[in-house]
Design goal:
Number of strands: 9
Structural class: alpha/beta
CATH topology: Rossmann fold
Shape: globular
Distance between the termini: 58 Å
CATH superfamily: Alpha/Beta hydrolase fold, catalytic domain
Strand order of the largest sheet: 1-2-3-5-4-6-7-8-9
Strand content: 15-25%
Number of domains: 1
Radius of gyration: 20 Å
Number of helices: 10
Length: about 350
């Protein structure tokens, strides 16, 4: 079979001729940002598709376990009608007992065997031995609770316990992302939208606890959780700061050029702008980016160019101290060298 260059040329033409609606480079001041945010937010949330209805949360405790320096609580909560999902809540032993006095972080897992990986558990639900490889996510929810944060870590739709039934057509690449993402599109829903909504439910849960300061809640995630954390911070202004690991790049150089899970694709998103333009919805709130020099699915040159655009935006808003990047020697993984201190500083 011969190779037809017309297909490559056509797809390149689509990108180059795309007239993006929004551009953070045109923002010069706070008033410009407000106008940009209003239009971008409306168009962006439309891309996320139809969101679940706001049913009562009805959190129920499934188990409680005392760990080294913190308590791990597994809960179940309502995502949508006829859909309950699990989440882990990590509470430090030194959490303040006075009402509404603790900072909190929503921790969003990437691809793998599910949220258990970031809360210190094996795929079988057992405690991870300290002498084994801790994986690319490096138990980051546990690292957060050790810094004194109350942590809410939901199982994201398509991962771990929220996969479809064990059928070879239902599970690929260790997840149910393909089947769920494509089926959601049939209902004008998206995987990104469902996961953003799950993070929104965690925000409501944290506020409802009574011991969390609603003005001191952040979000952190890597890879697919990096998408979810950045998209959630763009969606929800009550999130005060975010750490995005292994995700900021350009759509063109990452998900549109390198094989990625279908959960990264959102209809019409590039009509609004590139990834940095979407991240403009987070400005001027504190934001830290993690990027590995050897991350072969989010190329570093595109990471740097996107970050430079965001850094320039924060500079024009006189808030350059609120944005930072940790470019570390490594692959697609959590660094933590700056992230945890950054969250402590801004929360």
């Amino acid at each position: 079979m011969s190779y037809n260059h017309n297909v490559d040329n056509y797809m390149e033409h689509l990108y180059q001729s795309n007239q993006a609606k929004f551009n953070i480079d045109e923002i010069q001041n706070e008033q410009d940002l407000q106008e940009f945010s209003k239009g971008m937010y409306e168009s962006y949330t439309e891309c996320l598709g139809e969101m679940p209805k706001n049913f009562p949360l009805e959190p129920a405790v499934l188990y409680v376990k005392q760990c080294d320096g913190y308590t791990r609580v597994k809960i179940e909560y309502t995502v949508d009608e006829n859909f309950k999902a699990p989440a882990y809540i990590l509470v430090p032993d030194n959490a303040k007992s006075s009402e509404k006095s603790n900072a909190a972080v929503i921790a969003l897992t990437g691809h793998g065997y599910g949220v258990a990986d970031i809360v210190g558990l094996t795929e079988n639900g057992e405690e991870k031995p300290k002498d084994i490889d801790q994986g690319y996510q490096k138990n980051f929810a546990v690292e957060l609770v050790k810094r004194g944060f109350i942590v809410a870590a939901p199982e994201l739709f398509g991962f771990g316990e929220l996969m479809l039934s064990p059928n070879e057509n239902h599970r690929r690449d260790g997840s149910s992302c393909f089947m769920l993402s494509t089926q959601l599109l049939m209902y004008k829903k998206t995987m990104a939208g469902i996961r953003v909504w799950q993070a929104e439910r965690m925000l409501e849960y944290l506020i409802s606890r009574g011991d969390v300061d609603s003005e001191r809640i952040g979000v952190m995630g890597i890879s697919g959780g990096g998408l979810a954390s950045s998209f959630f911070a763009a969606y929800e202004k009550r999130i005060k700061t975010c750490v995005v690991s292994g995700f900021l790049c350009t759509f063109k150089d990452s998900v549109m050029s390198i094989y990625h899970c279908v959960d990264n694709f959102i209809p019409g998103i590039v009509n609004n702008g590139e990834m940095a333009d979407l991240f403009g919805l987070i400005a001027p709130r504190p934001m830290l980016i993690e990027a590995g020099t050897d991350d072969n699915i989010f190329p570093l040159d595109a990471v740097k160019s996107s970050y430079a655009r965001l850094e320039n935006l924060y500079g024009k808003l006189n808030t350059k101290e609120k944005i930072d990047i940790d470019i570390f020697k490594g692959e697609h993984q959590i660094s933590g060298a700056k992230a945890y201190d950054f969250l402590v500083k801004w929360l």
